[in-house]
């Protein structure tokens, strides 16, 4: 099927319209018209080749909401007209221990990224949700529960699950003390979800002017990371800290904030970090860990959890042709708290 999207042709060129083909439906494929797509900082990293593995053209977008327009003849879970969603993965081996336990993101053979990946059958490049249409294997297509506003559901598919998964993995619940470093797209979802799970939530931000927002999102307080006194007072007072900062940064201020056996979970910067003093790790069995998105079953659980509790991201809707401006604003941390593209603005 012929369609159109927005793609970067190199690390230094802005995103621009690109006409391309979506594959014909395989028996287990679902075709959808994309209605909304959230903008993740990873989209910017990929378009600019920050991680060094981008292959061009890069058509980002992995916070996708759409309406089913066609299904292959073996599809069981979805039908034409359903409101559905696709996140960061569109395939995995479906056979290894990780896939079998619903952790497809850690597939031993590597998951297939929604963009920047390689189709497992043809080897062709995968193109993401900054496009009018998408074709995805049914196992990777999620149900948008009724009651969840489709225009604001997209960011749950990446910002939501990437923070929900470690919160659940490290047992966050009522009474847990959770810190969130960086109040952006992921950070604001971490706040809403941790608060939704009953935790006591503290935002750690460079930006003192985000205090009122942090509280409105459900945090109990904001700790200004540059305030050395306040940081000192907060030592040994967190069970879990989710660090969403998208660049190389010093972890030394955060590790001592964990209580004994606490975990600092890195989900932002993908790459080297400055030298970290491991004394607090050893003297208090504190851990530094990482976490990658979340599995498909847990993503569906998250959508259902958010629908039941009316938890949705704070979104600013943009037109497709405002994407380059949105990237620049995201780079300046000038987004409160997630851009979403209204795909009706992209003329087919
Ligand atoms: P975002 O909306 O741009 O938010 C990042 C926040 O980090 C900013 O709002 C800012 O918060 C803080 N920050 C930004 N630049 C900083 C700097 N130079 N130094 C210190 N703090 C800074 O980004 P996002 O979409 O939430 O994504 C965050 C990171 O997570 C990205 O690197 C993205 O690639 C990654 N990611 C990882 C996964 C995964 O599976 N692990 C999934 C999705 C995204 P304050 O102003 O409050 O300090
Ligand atoms: Zn993302």
Tell me what the structure shows.
The chain has 348 residues and is an alpha/beta fold. The chain has two domains: 2-157 and 295-303 and 314-345, Alpha-Beta Complex (Quinone Oxidoreductase, Chain A, domain 1); 160-290, Rossmann fold (3-Layer(aba) Sandwich), CATH 3.40.50.720. The chain is built from ten helices and 17 strands. The chain has helices spanning 41-47, 97-100, 150-153, 159-169, 185-196, 211-217, 228-233, 279-284, 296-309, 323-331, and strands spanning 2-7, 16-21, 29-38, 64-71, 83-86, 89-91, 112-113, 133-137, 142-143, 177-181, 200-205, 221-224, 238-243, 258-266, 287-290, 315-318, 338-342. Strands 3, 4, 5, 8, 9, 16 and 17 form a seven-stranded mixed β-sheet that branches. The chain has a six-stranded parallel β-sheet with strand order 12-11-10-13-14-15. Strands 1-2 form a two-stranded antiparallel sheet. A hairpin with an 8-residue loop joins strand 1 (2-7) and strand 2. Helix 4 crosses helix 5. The longest helix has 14 residues, at 296-309. The protein binds NADP nicotinamide-adenine-dinucleotide phosphate (NAP) and zinc ion. Residues 40-42, 45, 158-159, 162, 182-187, 205-207, 210, 244-247, 249, 267-268, 291-293, 330, 333, 335 line the site of NADP nicotinamide-adenine-dinucleotide phosphate.
């Amino acid at each position: 099927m012929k369609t159109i999207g927005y793609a970067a042709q190199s690390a230094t060129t802005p995103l621009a319209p690109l006409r391309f083909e979506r594959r014909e439906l395989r028996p287990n494929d679902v075709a959808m018209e994309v209605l909304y797509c959230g903008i993740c900082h990873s989209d910017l990293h990929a378009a600019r080749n920050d991680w060094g593995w981008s292959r061009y053209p890069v058509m980002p977008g992995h916070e996708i909401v759409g309406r089913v327009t066609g299904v292959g003849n073996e599809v069981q879970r979805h039908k034409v007209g359903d409101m559905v969603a696709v996140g960061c993965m569109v395939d995995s081996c479906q056979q290894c221990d990780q896939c079998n336990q619903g952790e497809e993101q850690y597939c031993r053979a590597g998951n297939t990224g929604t963009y920047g990946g390689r189709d497992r059958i043809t080897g062709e490049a995968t193109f993401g949700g900054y496009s009018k249409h998408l074709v995805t294997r049914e196992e990777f297509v999620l149900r948008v529960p009724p009651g969840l506003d489709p225009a604001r559901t997209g960011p749950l598919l990446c910002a939501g699950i990437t923070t929900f998964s470690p919160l659940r993995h490290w047992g966050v619940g009522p009474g847990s003390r959770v810190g969130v470093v960086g109040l952006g797209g992921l950070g604001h979802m971490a706040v809403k979800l941790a608060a939704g799970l009953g935790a006591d939530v503290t935002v750690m931000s460079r930006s003192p002017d985000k205090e009122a927002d942090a509280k409105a999102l459900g945090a109990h307080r904001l700790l200004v990371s540059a305030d050395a006194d306040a940081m000192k007072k907060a030592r040994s007072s967190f069970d879990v800290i989710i660090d969403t900062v998208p660049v190389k940064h010093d972890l030394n201020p955060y590790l001592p904030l964990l209580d004994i056996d606490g975990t600092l979970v890195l989900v932002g910067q993908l790459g080297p970090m400055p030298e970290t003093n491991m004394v607090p790790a050893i003297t208090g069995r504190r851990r530094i860990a990482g976490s990658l998105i979340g599995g498909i079953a847990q993503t569906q659980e998250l959508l259902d959890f958010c629908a039941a509790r009316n938890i949705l991201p704070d979104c600013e809707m943009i037109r497709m042709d405002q994407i380059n401006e949105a990237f620049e604003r995201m780079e300046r941390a000038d987004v409160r708290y997630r851009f979403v593209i209204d795909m009706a603005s992209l003329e087919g």
